[in-house]
Design goal:
Layout: H1 3-14, H2 45-62, H3 68-86, H4 100-120
Helix pairs in contact: 2-3, 3-4
Region (Disordered): 1-40
Organism: Streptomonospora litoralis
Transmembrane segments: 47-66, 72-89, 101-121
Length: 126
């Protein structure tokens, strides 16, 4: 198929009239389950919680607290692993990168490595 043929088919599909609503439903009523979904931006709330916690950890590291900062970042990664494990795929937002088990293993592994880093890092005297 050529590019023009595909474009013509898509344009013809978009010009079709929508299906008429069934006559037995009242104009102001909705079917059960329709419109009950939360807005799309709510699926990004877990991502922003993890991102803000991680940002706070980075700020703490920049303030020369090399034990507290990585521990907070590790906590945010563990939070991401919990969100990825518990929440369904349509409510997880941008935390879903790969398959669920791979995301959970990656988040947990990075969190464990950061906890070890925070444990062995020397405390700087001020």
């Amino acid at each position: 198929m050529s590019q023009n043929t595909v474009e013509e088919a898509v344009a013809a599909e978009s010009r079709r009239p929508d299906d008429e609503p069934e006559p037995d439903s009242a104009p102001g009523e909705q079917e059960p389950g329709v419109g009950d979904e939360a807005p799309g931006w709510l699926s990004q709330v877990p991502y922003f919680l993890v991102l803000s916690t991680m940002s706070a950890g980075i700020v703490i590291v920049a303030a020369a607290h090399f034990k507290r900062g990585p521990a907070l970042i590790a906590g945010s990664l563990l939070l991401a692993a919990v969100f990825r494990t518990v929440l369904p795929p349509h409510k997880i937002g941008m935390l879903a990168v790969r398959r669920r088990w791979l995301d959970v293993i990656t988040f947990t592994g990075l969190a464990v490595l950061l906890i070890v880093l925070a444990w062995v890092a020397p405390q700087l005297s001020q």
